[in-house]
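HUMAN:
Just now I want nothing more than another pair of eyes on a protein record. I would be glad if you read both lines and explained how they fit together. I have put the entry right below:
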Amino acid sequence: MTHTVHPYAHRLGTIRDWKSRWFAADAKSYRENLRSDELIRRFLKKRLRGTYTSDVEIERSSGEIRIIVSTARPGLVIGRSGENATKLRAELTRLVQEAAPAERRAVKLDVVEVRQPEASAAVVAYMVAEGLEKRMPFRRVLKSTVEKVAAVREIEGIRIAISGRLGGAEMSRKEEAKKGRIPLQTLRADIDFAHEEAYLPYGVIGIKVWIYRGQVNEPRRRTLA
């Protein structure tokens, strides 16, 4: 039988880097850091819904915890005069202290703008979810989104799959739209993947997006010190 592998995890160490970058000295600190990272990601996914957030990266050093949020709408995350960012940083600090009471490192929040939203699978997945939640016909949402993404010059392939009670039907089913090619087994292929959920009165619609941005000519090589 074939096995489905996550496109991001499949390329770790080849053309992708880890989204959590830190070192734990013992098993206890490893558990605390892992739990803290998971709580941070869950909190930001819920808190920043609607801001077209594509990625959350976490770096830990001896003196601080740096959280990097990539979003297509940085103004909504930062707020006027930075008030939203200040409040968000205070909430993250409180969350980290609750997850690890012995944590004394300062929490730093960096907001990075996504220059090309149509090239990010997470942003495209939320665009589809937004269209479905506005009660737009799912086939129209799929077609218009695929055409919009395919119009970007650096995109060589796009595939969107949705599943659930589409159109309010009694029985759930799966529909997908595709343009270009998606070479999932090529490790040097720069494929961005994301999944999202659209919440509708008759149930939840699952959304998966694959975006192929061409091959990486020089993959990152791991060096041993």
